[in-house]
Amino acid sequence: MNIVVVITLAAFAVGTALSCGVCPTMKWANCDGNPCKCYVMVGQGEKLFLNCTNLIPKCFLMKAEMYRARKGESTRSGGKPHETAFVDNDGIYDPDCENDGKFRAKQCNNTEECWCVNSAGVRRTDKGDTNLKCDKLVETYWIRLQLKHKPTTDKVDETKLINAIGNEIKSRYNFEKNLVKAIKYDPEARLIEVDVKKEMGNRDTDLAQMAYYMEKDIKALPLFKNQNKFEPSVESQKLEMENILVYYVDEEAPTFTMRNLPAGIIATIVVVVLAVVAGILILIFMKKRQMKYNKAQQREMDPM
Ligand SMILES: *[C@@H]1O[C@H](CO)[C@@H](O)[C@H](O)[C@H]1NC(C)=O
Ligand SMILES: *[C@@H]1O[C@H](CO)[C@@H](O)[C@H](O)[C@H]1NC(C)=O
Description:
By secondary structure, the chain is α+β, with helices and mostly antiparallel strands. The protein has five helices and eleven strands. The strands form four sheets. Strands 7-8-6-11 form a four-stranded antiparallel sheet, covered by helices on one side. Strands 1-2-3 form a three-stranded antiparallel sheet. The chain has a two-stranded antiparallel sheet with strand order 4-5. Strand 4 and strand 5 (115-116) form a beta hairpin.
């Protein structure tokens, strides 16, 4: 047989396989019916239909994870780019999604306790009761990915790193490469800091979706059907990642208060407060001694 025909047939077979039976961008999906549709189970056992030609919106992924967690099936396991940047300390909840997969601005996790989220579904306000108002969904326009790679045998060429990361993000997540802005590299700490940033006001690209797939790729297992690793290659060397931290910067600063400060900062504040209290106590003590001394002196002088 002609080799071109074989390749064409193979491509056709892959094409039909993709259109029914397999969802490349979501390994937990099932596909059936005529016309064939792919879906994941969410909520109390409802089917949520997916468009498997694209990455799945994070809100849908979290709903699917919560469903699996309830069923006991497996799920998830440099510094700030900006003064208003924050990380997701809350972890997973069962989100309310719009039909197109965007997060609703207000989330309650099926409880009486609610909070407002950004377009990445990460909490950006204090928690309140069900009367809490979230006017709108605030967009995350800048994400900093702090990647730590495993030790390598050869030195990593920093100048080639930018392109390597950009290519991997482009090919793996079908993501616009020009949104990958700056990369900083610390060879000692094996830290690669990648800024992914779009124009404020841009609503065409969803940074959170790509970041979530990457978080899963590095911290747990890929969400893709294909379980290949996220492994940018610099020259002939593959860089395997061992950790990722994601910072979010929203178009408007979050409105957390003190009690949401990270433990480290709270500890510092406590130490400072204790030091001030100790200082005041010493002052009072010294003042008392001085007064006693003055009185004693006075008494001694009285008879004269
Ligand atoms: C899935 O997404 C692609 C690309 O955005 C679009 O062309 C296609 O019409 C969508 N399919 C369905 C079934 O909505
Ligand atoms: C949401 O609720 C689930 C239990 O249904 C709980 O395990 C999870 O920690 C909650 N998430 C948040 C962010 O409150």
